[in-house]
Design goal:
Elements (H helix, E strand, L loop, with lengths): L12 H27 L5 H35 L16 H32 L2 H6 L2 H12 L8 H5 L4 H19 L21 H4 L9 E8 L7 E8 L22 E6 L10 E6 L5 E6 L6 H6 L3 E2 L16 H10 L10 H9 L6 H19 L1 H6 L1 H18 L31 E2 L14 E7 L5 E2 L23 H5 L4
Bound molecules: heme C (6 copies).
Length: 503
């Protein structure tokens, strides 16, 4: 058999190294691809990064080095007067060397094109995957990723909300992504990561791809158990009928909370801050009748010029549901739920108060929090409730584990993320939320206000301690009773005025 020959200029170290790099990368891409098919989803999140982004870069690099080596060699040979037949390669397929080179080049090109089409398809998918968004920048995205996994959207890809469909938004997101990669590598990102709320794609093109406004949601019963901060962890129940939809289904979006997204209704507002918490100017337009009402905050009125210069935003899903998938819950709520679920025993005296006290501390790291939770609870109960502690070591240790677990789902000291790092606009207890507009202070010219009437959005159907539960019905709503507040002090303030620093 004749020796396999290539053009003279190929025989130089640079080109040979280039070939080796290209071949090894190619082999590894194929190898990892086969592995990922064989072992499927169980493989590491970095594998996609390596297979479809890092290795192809090396492959291309190797391929670029080969002709460079050949060029350099030709120049050098020329200086040393090594005789080449012609300056340009002659494509004469009868010549073995040329034939081999052409064949390799031809087959190589076809193969490379095939591979790069598979590769770019895979790279596209990979950069759109939840694992890429959520875990590659591990530490940075951890809070969002963990909260997301515990949310109703755990199976909706990050990009469905953050990018949406269409090449335009894909390119935009990848361009800003490049800066983000730089920010992570250079460690110049802010903590916590600011909300992208003003850059998010409109809900119409993301949320509404899955939940369209005409889709009807009926009223919903919310039944919650609260536990007060006393020795017995006194249970306090609240059941509310959320008026998401109308009284009678036939009325559709004509009334109730989702009235705001009725296609015939347009609610617009002006925000005077970037996180949209101060909304001094609100305009409602009935698109069917043409009726218009402008509500202005009496205490914070904008001037004509300010209104003319401001951006007017139309309200959409995101103005209420701004944390549909990254909801860092306040300790008051997750501890209540852990007690209700039986993960933390209600029998442990003062456990609600103690847990809230510990979770209110600003820990520097997750590890220091884990250690403190364990040490503090053991110390507190062994010295203050000695008998209980010695009789129920299992309850105390279960409480410790569960408080630690809840901490890890909701609080992320490394990224300075906890419930109050971001506003959640759905209710009105920890943040003003609905009360940004519904505060009885936004007045129209005719003197109407956007009301804070406690029965507008929900009706309370049961409340109080279980033994003496006050019960109403869906037709006959109860007046709110605040726990431990015999004089009705809560009426004098907004809920946030006390509740935003209770936790
Ligand atoms: C259901 C839609 C949805 C999904 C799915 C989703 N996000 Fe978000 N994300 C949002 C919205 C809306 C905001 C803006 C929140 C705000 O304005 O308060 C946001 C904000 C963020 C922020 C800014 C910081 C913050 O907490 O506000 C990051 C980072 C983020 N998302 C990452 C992710 C990652 C990573 C995934 C996938 C693991 C993901 N998101 C999945 C809707 C979503
Ligand atoms: C790719 C589809 C998809 C997109 C996009 C999407 N969602 Fe969802 N959403 C779902 C699914 C699936 C559920 C869970 C189904 C259920 O609970 O009935 C859900 C549930 C919800 C719920 C109910 C949560 C609960 O506690 O029951 C809300 C609220 C919600 N989504 C709001 C949003 C908002 C706001 C956006 C845009 C930022 C959005 N969704 C984008 C698919 C989507
Ligand atoms: C940007 C301002 C704004 C925000 C924020 C807002 N609303 Fe409204 N809402 C309005 C306006 C304006 C009206 C109509 C008032 C009128 O015409 O009397 C209204 C009316 C309503 C109605 C009565 C609809 C009907 O006719 O049956 C309900 C219920 C309601 N809102 C619930 C909520 C809930 C719940 C939230 C928070 C999750 C909220 N709103 C947040 C502006 C707002
Ligand atoms: C005025 C504020 C407001 C707006 C705007 C709004 N919602 Fe809601 N939505 C609510 C409230 C309040 C609830 C009751 C659930 C709760 O208590 O958390 C709710 C409930 C839901 C639910 C759960 C329903 C169920 O019965 O499980 C979904 C899904 C939902 N909304 C999707 C959307 C989508 C999609 C949009 C935009 C097209 C939207 N919402 C716009 C306030 C709003
Ligand atoms: C503009 C609509 C609106 C008005 C007005 C309103 N609420 Fe609410 N309220 C909500 C929403 C939305 C939630 C549910 C929040 C959630 O899903 O986490 C809620 C939740 C609650 C809860 C349950 C506690 C919790 O957050 O789990 C209580 C109690 C409550 N409201 C009392 C009141 C009282 C008292 C008033 C009158 C001062 C009032 N609400 C007025 C929208 C409203
Ligand atoms: C004057 C201050 C103040 C105002 C205003 C106030 N609260 Fe409270 N609230 C408290 C305090 C203090 C507690 C803790 C009581 C305890 O645990 O013994 C509490 C506890 C609660 C609880 C039980 C919490 C838990 O730990 O599970 C609910 C529910 C509640 N408040 C709802 C509301 C709502 C809704 C509003 C607004 C309509 C409101 N509060 C306004 C001071 C206030």
């Amino acid at each position: 058999m004749k020796k396999f020959k290539l053009p003279q200029s190929y025989y130089n170290w640079t080109s040979i190294i280039g070939t080796t790099i290209a071949l090894v990368s190619l082999f590894m891409i194929v190898f990892l691809f086969v592995i990922s098919i064989l072992f499927g989803a169980g493989t590491s999140s970095y594998m996609g990064l390596v297979t479809w982004i890092v290795l192809p870069v090396f492959l291309v690099l190797g391929l670029i080095i080969i002709p460079i080596g050949m060029l350099v060699k030709r120049r050098k040979d020329k200086r040393q007067h090594v005789v080449y037949e012609k300056t340009w390669p002659k494509i004469d397929l009868n010549d073995v060397r040329t034939r081999n080179a052409t064949m390799i080049f031809g087959i190589g090109t076809v193969f490379f094109l095939l591979l790069s089409s598979v590769g770019s398809y895979e790279a596209f998918h990979y950069t759109e995957s939840v694992e890429f968004c959520g875990t590659v920048c591990h530490k940075v995205m951890k809070p969002e990723y963990v909260a997301y996994q515990n949310s109703p959207h755990a199976k909706v890809a990050c990009v469905e909300c953050h990018v949406g469909s269409g090449a335009n938004w894909y390119v935009r997101s990848k361009l800003s992504g490049l800066y983000q990669v730089y920010a992570v590598l250079a460690k110049v990102y802010p903590k916590p990561i600011p909300t992208p709320v003003s850059n998010l794609r409109p809900a119409r093109e993301t949320c509404e791809e899955c939940h369209w406004p005409e889709k009807f949601y009926s009223r919903q019963l919310v039944v919650e158990k609260h536990y007060l901060a006393d020795e017995e962890n006194t249970e306090w129940d609240i059941s509310l009928q959320m008026k998401t939809g109308p009284t009678y289904s036939a009325l559709g979006l004509q009334e109730g909370i989702h009235w705001h997204i009725n296609p015939n209704v347009k609610v617009e507002y002006i925000a005077t801050d970037t996180v949209r918490q101060n909304l001094p100017w609100v305009r409602f337009t009935n698109l069917k009748t043409g009726e218009v009402k402008v509500f202005e905050d009496e205490e914070n009125k904008l001037t004509e010029e300010q209104i003319a210069a401001a951006e007017i935003r139309e309200m959409d899903c995101m103005d209420c549901h701004n944390r549909p998938s990254h909801d860092y819950r306040p300790p008051m709520r997750f501890i209540n739920d852990a007690i209700t679920a039986g993960n933390i025993s209600k029998e442990i005296p003062e456990i609600k108060m103690k847990a809230m006290e510990i979770l209110g501390i600003d820990f520097p790291t997750t590890d220091s929090a884990m250690a403190y939770i364990e040490q503090e609870l053991n110390e507190y109960y062994s010295s203050n409730y000695e008998e209980f502690y010695s009789q129920h070591p299992d309850l105390i240790s279960a409480a410790i584990t569960n408080i630690q677990n809840e901490f890890k789902k909701n609080i992320f000291p490394e990224m300075k993320v906890r419930w109050n790092a971001y506003h959640n606009n759905i209710g009105h207890m920890e943040f003003n939320g609905c009360f940004r507009c519904h505060n009885d202070k936004h007045k129209s010219e005719r003197g109407e206000v956007i009301t804070r009437n406690c029965n507008l959005c929900h009706s309370i159907v049961a409340q109080g301690v279980p033994d003496t539960l006050q019960v109403g019905s869906i037709y006959d709503e109860l007046e709110f009773v605040h726990p431990n507040d015999p004089y009705g002090d809560w009426k004098e303030y907004l809920c946030v005025e006390c509740h935003s620093d209770l936790y």
